[in-house]
């Protein structure tokens, strides 16, 4: 019933793009012709395409960009497609971009989506003209520190399947507002965030299970992916709040900027994790300023 109500309240709101084995859902905004450029948005954990689209995407569209936000595989209305790692999800997004044919794009990845954006640039460089990584999770971290024991237990296939279809949805729904407030710290949540970002879609069984798999598998995926960051040849802008309690700037953004040749770090004093919402105008301005640098790589 929880899943049905969430799906009925937030039905698909953009076109689907066929890929091998299924389809990816998108939200799209801005002009398709004579656009200043195309920006692809990749959301973080426990979210869907509406999160970055409503935070910063529509501000970019108002500035003349074509904006394409993807529901990552298994989230929102996208099929799971067996894609749990950043690299596997980047492969599906690259395939979808091949169908949409927007040319090389600026990829903006937030949080977990930063890892997927990096994988897209590493494995499909012909699709990417530049990266904007917002509060990115990109460097390895100790799994024992990042994820408590009950997450690891929940990730075991039989337990995860059972929890996602019994206790998981009502518990997730109960804690939804509090969890959103934690994500915004130290700022208060943006008005109407839960509805505008279509957050209740994340409490459905499939999305809950996908989210757990994504989080549990991320440390090992970053161990494999991060040694390649030095080979990136596209312009990279990293944007992070220095008061982010979830993805600390000194643990991720700062060392990441040193690993990627020519990467620039934009530090936002006093801001937390939800930069696309609490500083959407500043982020859209940074993307617009970044455009000439990205365009020169095409």
UniProtKB/TrEMBL annotation:
Annotated GO molecular function terms are: hydrolase activity
One cellular component term (GO) for this entry is: membrane
Which Pfam families would you find in this protein's record? Abhydrolase_1
What residues does the AB hydrolase-1 domain cover?
38-277
- Among its keywords, does the record have Cell cycle? no
| Assigned keywords, A-Z | Hydrolase
Q: Does the keyword Zinc-finger apply?
A: no
Alphabetical list of InterPro entries matching this protein: AB_hydrolase_1, AB_hydrolase_fold, AB_hydrolase_sf, Epox_hydrolase-like
- Per its record, how is this protein called by name? Alpha/beta hydrolase
Give the classification, highest ranks: Bacteria, Pseudomonadati, Pseudomonadota, Alphaproteobacteria, Hyphomicrobiales
